[in-house]
Amino acid sequence: MENELLKLSNTIVNYSVKVKEGERVLIITNGIESKFLIKALIRDIVKVKGIPFVRIVDNEINALLMELTNSKRIDELAKHKKEEVDNFDVFISIRYTENEYEGKHINTSIRKEIGEKTSKSDDIRINKRKWVLLNYPSLIDAYKIGMPYDEYKNYAIKSMNFDYSSMEQDIKPLKELMQKTNKVRIVSPNTDISFSIKNMNIVPCCGTSNIPDGEIYTAPVKNSVNGKITYNTPSPYQGNVYRNVSLIFKDGKIIKATCDGDNEALNAIFDTDSGSRYVGEFSLGLNPMITKPMGDILYDEKIIGSIHFTPGKCYDDADNGNDSSIHWDMVLIQNKEFGGGEIYFDDVLIRKDGKFVLEDLKHLNYNLK
Q1: Could you say which of 131, 236, 244, 302 would form a disulfide bridge with 287 (CB–CB 3.0 to 4.6 Å)?
Q2: Does domain 2-160 have CATH number 3.40.640.10?
Q3: Which residues in the chain are classed under CATH 3.40.1830.10?
Q4: Contacts of 186 (CB under 8 A, 6+ apart)
Q5: Residue 13 DSSP one-character state
Q6: pLDDT digits (tens, 9 = 90+) for 18-46
């Protein structure tokens, strides 16, 4: 496993963020369990003459700070985040799941104020700096999907070490097809939704911002979304986990949102601001090493045969004009064992039950049976 982690470190430093001489690199983690990887990252950064810094945070302490905060402290937090993005060139974030319900009790208005006041710094970090995010495998992650920890850790690290340079070549025909596409239709159990991606930029993701990676995203034309979508994987957000989230759209806007649980809390998220009931991202998951939900959006959104359709802020490189302080990736898996489904581009069937059916795209099915 140490060799796999050394390989991962090399991939992050020399491929994902391509650290250059003199660049200031901030490694942020909430889990000291990733210490071996952090030490490897420090060595690899120094090898290329970068300047590494490390910040270790604690989720319980952060939750307490948020619980006891006020507007003055949030202003100071926003100032600190602005200084941080001004002072660093590269951000490597290593998350470690301890308790996904930590902070569940924090008032929605506090989260909203923090989101609004720190959004400009977040925009700079995401769109103007080099960054990569990974979730280090934890005991809780293994427990959630019913695997022994060592087996799960091996599975997770292997999915991170996928050959992204090969994927970058494999994905080109799909990108070209999406660039020519106007109308997209997605059909699955309790799902029939249509929208346009005409003239929208298409962005392949092959190990440069997320680890693991493997998706291709764009955004729908903002007011073009109509129909219903039901997500068949759990959707964690702000300390809650929402199941079987179902959204109905009219002219781009979510007009009804339900789930198997707290519908009031669900709708409060979509009432965060004027952009939170519109969609900022449409993406196809392509990582063949990830075949089932892991309860971690960084993995689940890459599941081969899946899509995610994301209420909230769009990315600058696939800009449909939607601005919001939320960006909530929610996943629909269309593989046969999850109920199946179809994707149509301009009324032509592109993918059925998670498998691409066009000859030019069948190589992207990888290990799907």
Answers
A1: 302
A2: no
A3: 2-160
A4: 192, 193, 194, 229, 307, 309, 332, 341, 342, 343, 344
A5: I
A6: 999 999 999 999 988 899 999 999 999 99
